[in-house]
Structures are given as structure tokens and as C-alpha cells.
Amino acid sequence: VQLQASGGGLVQAGGSLKLSCAASGRPFTTLAMGWFRQAPGKERDFVADISWNGARTYYADSVQGRFTISRDDAKNTVYLQMNSLKPEDTAVYYCAADLGGWGGGEINDYDFWGQGTLVTVSS
């Protein structure tokens, strides 16, 4: 599976960004998809995931109510809508795919990773 993330950039605190991750190489409808992020000098942390059928989503406490994960199976793409951004949301954001279909909150739950897209939130 190849994953291509895009949509990062520089935004002021309180603003919004929408990240996209296009997948290829496997039937998209069999994949659970997740977003993680890694701030400078820190570990890669779970942000959100969505199951293969879109029926289940899960969010980290730090983004609950501000971020929304969604998927468009016709476009083989998963999205992360980020609202009310804070400086502490600054990080490289990575999308990931789980062949098992259900995702999870751990790095080891995923089989494939995209290259990352940088989000910078200024105060």
C-alpha cells in the first residue's frame, strides 16, 4: 500500500486545516486508516482512526471535539479536518493503513505509513 499525505501548512491559532491521504495498491475498502503526529523531539502519537467501513472512529483526548476523521472510498482517500488549531498541534502528521481493517491507537497496529505532512500553528 502506498500512502500520500498532503494538506499541511502554516496556520494561525484558532484556524483550520484539512489533511488528505490518498491510498493505492490495495482495495481501500478493506483498510482501516489512522492519523498520527510527531512533534520535534517527541514520540509519534496517535491522533485518530477510522475503521474499514467508516462505522467506528476514535480520537485522542487532545483532539476530541476539534478534529474529524473521514473517508471517501470512491477517492481512496482519508481526511483529517482540524479545527480550532492550537500551537501544540504543531507536528508532522502521518497517515497509516491497517490491513486488519480496525485500526488502533498504537504504531504497531498499522502496516503501512505515508511520508508525513508538516502542520505549523502559530500563536
Please describe the structure with a list of short key phrases separated by commas or semicolons.
123 residues; mainly beta; 7-stranded mixed beta sheet; 4-stranded antiparallel beta sheet; 0% helix; globular
> Average pLDDT across residues?
97
Largest sheet: 7 strands, mixed
Low-confidence stretches: none
Q: In DSSP terms, counting alpha (H) and pi (I) runs of 4 or more, how many helices?
A: 0
> What Rg, in angstroms, do the CA atoms define?
13 Å
Strand content: over 45%
Query: Could you give the count of β-strands?
Result: 11
Write the H/E string, N to C. Answer: EEEEEEEEEEE
Helix residue percentage: under 10%
Distance between the termini: 37 Å
The geometry reads as globular
Oligomer state of the chains in this structure? single chain
Structural class: mainly beta
Describe what you observe in this structure.
The protein is mainly beta. The model has no long low-confidence stretch (mean pLDDT 97). The chain is globular. The strands form 2 sheets. Strands 2, 4, 5, 6, 9, 10 and 11 form a 7-stranded mixed β-sheet that branches. A 4-stranded antiparallel β-sheet has the order 1-3-8-7, with no helix packed on it. It has strands at residues 2-6, 9-12, 17-24, 32-38, 44-50, 57-59, 67-72, 77-82, 91-98, 112-113, 117-122.
